[in-house]
Amino acid sequence: MLCCMPGVAFVPALLVSWSSAAFIISYVIAVLAGHVEPLVPYISDTGTKPPESGIFGFMINISALLAVITMYIRYLLIEKQNESSQFVRSSCNMFSLCIGLTGCIGMGIVATFQELSVPSVHDIGALVAFGSGVVYITLQSIISYKSCPRWNTYFVCHIRMAISVTSCIAFIPMIVFASQISMTKIDWTPDEKDYTYHFLSAICEWTVAFGFVFFFLTFIRDFQ
């Protein structure tokens, strides 16, 4: 199916499918191995212990590479469209690309430095990845509106902005609740201290992560 897509639409399609598989596969293995509780662990919790840690690290690094390729193609696409329409400044397009690439670096840090091995570096990588990602999709939503109606439909723009707003809203409590947790561990149970903070923060983290996935899904039509 990916090979039959016109243009370079297979790139964001591959990014979406690979990233979703990375989250789901590591989660299933971690739960079956008894390393995490099945009820909403952190994404990083599902890639901390072997054997899932190796799979998680490998697949997230590939996802980061695919994201770099997708963002660069998106940058080139906007530059080409902008030659005839002049709907956005080239500097703004470049700034958006740089923010996106920064988020990809954060993903690489998350994949390389496990949560329990080097928690401070892992947390910095996660903050960079999620923070830069939220800024990137918000900027892309704004650029999409500016390109209407010639290069985008308002329906697609509304979807992108809705995803961006949802991700922004979820990102803030994710950080706030995570900062209230006094211990670094992955095997949480409901009767433990800080479990509520962990649970709420994890829900927000999954919301933001799949917000990114669904946002890149909307790129497929553009890349055709």
TL;DR of this structure?
InterPro entries: CWH43_N (IPR019402), DRAM/TMEM150_Autophagy_Mod (IPR050911). By secondary structure, this protein is mainly α. 72% of the residues lie in helices and 0% in strands.
Q: Would you mind describing this structure in some detail?
A:
It is found in: Endomembrane system. This is DRAM1 protein. The protein has 224 residues and is mainly alpha-helical. It has one domain. The chain contains seven helices and no strands. It has helices at residues 10-32, 52-85, 90-112, 119-146, 154-179, 195-217, 219-223. The longest helix has 34 residues, at 52-85. It is elongated and about 60 Å long.
How large is the count of helical segments? Answer: 7
User: Percent range for helical residues?
Assistant: over 70%
- Overall 3D form: elongated
List unreliable stretches of 5+ residues. none
Query: What's the mean pLDDT score?
Result: 93
Give the DSSP E fraction (strand runs of 2 or more residues): under 5%
Q: In total, how many beta strands? A: 0
- What's the gyration radius in Å? 18 Å
How many structurally independent domains? 1
Structural class: mainly alpha
Distance between the termini: 14 Å
What order do the helices and strands come in, and which of them pair?
Elements: H1 10-32, H2 52-85, H3 90-112, H4 119-146, H5 154-179, H6 195-217, H7 219-223
Helix pairs in contact: 1-2, 1-6, 2-3, 3-4, 4-5, 4-6, 5-6
